[in-house]
Amino acid sequence: MTTKDIVFITGANTGIGYQAVKSLLQSPKPYHILLGSRSLLKGEAAVAKLAEETDNGHSTVEAVEIDITDDDSIQRAFQFVWDKFGRVDVLVNNAGACFDTTFDNDGKNFRNVFNETYNVNVAGTQVFTYVFAPLLLKSSSPRLLFNTSGRSSLAKEAAHEQVPKFAPGWPKQSDSAWLAQGYRSSKAALNMIMLTWQTVLKEDNVKVWCINPGLLATNLGGSKSRLEKMGAADPSIGGNLIRQAIEGERDADMGKVVCRNGGVQAW
After folding, report:
1. Distance from first CA to last CA of the chain, Å, rounded?
2. Which residues participate in catalysis according to the annotation?
3. In the chain, at which residue ranges do the beta strands (DSSP E only) sit?
4. How far apart are CA 236 and CA 222, in angstroms?
5. What GO terms in the biological process aspect are recorded for it (predicted)?
């Protein structure tokens, strides 16, 4: 049984999740990091890459196969962690997906776009958290994080900030993927999930947040280059923000959506 803090990060073989693992490996604090990946081979490849990119003698990383859209996969991952460690100190719900393209293109396929998005970002995240909650409650200092989006803010949307323009009439034509109704509404739902988990786990002294890393150049939606053209920043920024929450730097903002600039996001 390890005395290191055990951190489980879903969707950690690439993108923000990978950068979160890398940031933790650069910390003076020792961790045992469970790098969640839908493919064990890809997870193990990520572990090997991290070994090349970092020099850390006090933290360890281990790949764990988990697909949060598959209940059996979640249960297998839970049993593995339960049998080997008996606890988790930090759960990071990082795995997410975006299936939106443009409004006019997605119109004929909205049901599938929304169902697939919510299955990952909302239902999958909820089930994973529920199944792993008993492990989290075995920790002496449990933390629970959800990776949301700056585009989930209802306040900003109501103020019509950074929205594409649509001409009068029908059908609506747009070459902008910025609207992303499926993705953005799923992340707004995720914010509510965070708040409800804060209520459920309040008497267990679990610290709970949503993390808004901002627009980052990942493969979300399958187009890193498109995100870069939209001004996306390096994913390491998101990894560092997750580490800040894990290491107590954002404790004053518990129960809120914390941002990389030190602020909090309006609901």
Report:
1. 40
2. 149, 183, 187
3. 5-9, 31-37, 60-65, 90-93, 143-147, 207-212, 257-259
4. 18
5. secondary metabolic process
Amino acid identity at 105: N
Cβ neighbours of residue 133 closer than 8 Å, sequence gap 6 or more: 201
- Rounded CA-CA distance 71/42 in Å is 20
CATH architecture of the domain 5-259 equals 3-Layer(aba) Sandwich (3.40)
Span 114-165, pLDDT tens digits: 999 999 999 999 999 999 999 999 999 999 999 999 889 999 888 876 567 7
Report pLDDT for 110: 96
Catalogue the long-range contacts made by 59-62 (C-beta closer than 8 Å, 24 or more residues apart). 59/4, 59/24, 59/25, 59/27, 59/29, 59/30, 59/31, 59/32, 59/33, 60/4, 60/31, 60/32, 60/33, 61/21, 61/25, 61/32, 61/33, 61/35, 62/32, 62/33, 62/34, 62/35
pLDDT band at 238 (very low <50, low <70, confident <90, very high): confident
State how far the Cα of 85 lies from the Cα of 93, in Å rounded to an integer. Answer: 19
pLDDT tens digits, residue range 153-194? 999 888 876 567 788 899 888 777 678 899 999 999 999 999
For residue 152, how many other CB atoms are within 10 A of its CB? 23
228: pLDDT confidence band, cut at 50, 70 and 90?
very low
CA-wise closest residue to 121 among 131, 113, 133, 109: 113
Q: Tell which wins on pLDDT, 161 or 92.
A: 92
The pair of three-digit structure tokens given for residue 175, joined into one six-digit string: 């070459």
